[in-house]
Amino acid sequence: MWVLNFILASIAFANIYVFSPDKLRMDMSTRHSHGPIPSSLANFGNPPYGSIIVGRVFLPRNENQYKGCSPLDHISWDDDPDIVNSPILLLERGGCSFVVKVRNAQNIGASAVLIMNNVDGSIDPITMIDDGTAGNIDIPSLLITKADGDLIKDYIKKESFQTRVALSISFEMPHPDNTVEYDIWMTSGFPIMRKFLYEFAPVAKKFNSTNAVFTPHYVIYYCVECKATGFKTDNQDCYGGGKYCSPDPDEGYGPLTGRDVLDESLRQLCINKANIKNQKVWWDYIRGFYEMCGSDKNFTKKCSEKAMERVKIDKYSIEECVASSFSISNWVYSDNSLLDDEKYALADSGILFYPAIVINNQVYRGDFEVSAVMTAICAGYQDKPKICIDYFNGLLPGDDSETSEGVGAGTVVLVMALCLLFLIAVLIAYWVWMRRDMKADIRRQANSAINQYIALTEQNIRNH
User: Fold this and answer.
1) N or C: which end of the chain has fewer CB within 10 A?
2) Rounded to two decimals, what is the model's pTM?
């Protein structure tokens, strides 16, 4: 069993204000000292960072659907306050997971979901997490207090205000300058991150050191039982007698252990350390590693070294870096300087869940999809760099246009053009050959007919 020490960090909150009616705006403003309505953004869905949603707030048509735990009746999303119809559905907490509620709202066309707490008090300790099934949810959702939810609900139920209750929700990312700092917290064995990093690498490589500062971090646990023995336990998922642990990636049903994950995390830390001024090398390695070694059976040191060779990383210097990070030769009981740094950084960050992305010191909330993460990163600039403009104009490929082996897009186009020319040449040659063959065949048939005619004529002459 492991525990992780967390302290509260800068969590991503959207800003919610009452758009109308004026009376509700005044009531909320007085309640919250002219500030926004307190909210907590879910860590699933795709919040439109850098954008504002202004929409009328609706309740489900039937009170027995207020929790949103079953498919919802269709709602006519009328009377939106602006030109873009962005309806917001208010639901109650309880009865099912947050994901189920938001999915049911999305299925009937809601643009955002507010979920009001079902108990009084602050919502600060509560995070709406993915239950593992939120991959198809695209809309944002936010948790608000029971008191604020009750007030909004009361106004919606008043006939005189029913069609006028509207909110504005802004999804802001701090953007102090034209350099975005972002950290990714993960373990090297986490399946979601394997997929995301593989897909994100081609785009991440196109940022440069002047417009983006990236730091990979690795989540380290400690073994509670091992602490009781003074960290002198030989645990297959740990080093340092239990000070540094990672979950078993195949959960005990395969050959891998937490130590395999720690080994790979250390290699990735060393590769980043050796290439801090050229992080494209790190991304090239990550892309190659998860392509070649992403399956559990290939998650090995040998496969990692092949991935290093593929992108021309000196595997011996990386091996030396990993070894020198341990204080003694027996890694099982040794302290480790790199893993200690990660533990201290984690305590300072205060992230409440992992994997996590921190952008400009704010925890990203949303799906681990390239487009969603790029939306958040690009919202962190005062002036968007060319890579952001190109990406959202479809000018950057979603996949790598330059593989780690140096095959560029121009080469691919040239090869395709040569193949096309070859095909055309084959077709022309075939057409010429067919014409010649047809002419020869016609001649043969004509000669045969003439010969038969001559033979028949000669026979007729002899008969007479």
Assistant:
1) C
2) 0.72
> Contact at 8 Å (CB) between 240 and 258?
no
- For residue 378 the two structure tokens come to 């690009």
pLDDT at position 402, please? Answer: 43
Query: Is a pLDDT exceeding 60 seen at residue 30?
Result: yes
Q: What tokens appear for 278 in the block?
A: 């050229």
CB atoms within 10 A of CB 420: 10
Q: Encode pLDDT of 391-400 as tens digits.
A: 999 887 554 4
All domains in the chain, ordered by first residue: 11-171 (3.50.30.30), 180-392 (3.40.30.10)
Residue 108 to residue 113: CA distance in whole angstroms: 12
Residue written as token pair 């001649």: 443
Closest CA to 108 of 88, 128, 92: 88
Rounded alpha-carbon distances, angstroms, from residue 400 to 196, 307, 395: 13, 16, 12
Strands 88-92 and 51-58: parallel
Closest by Cα among 233, 213, 214, 215 to 223: 233
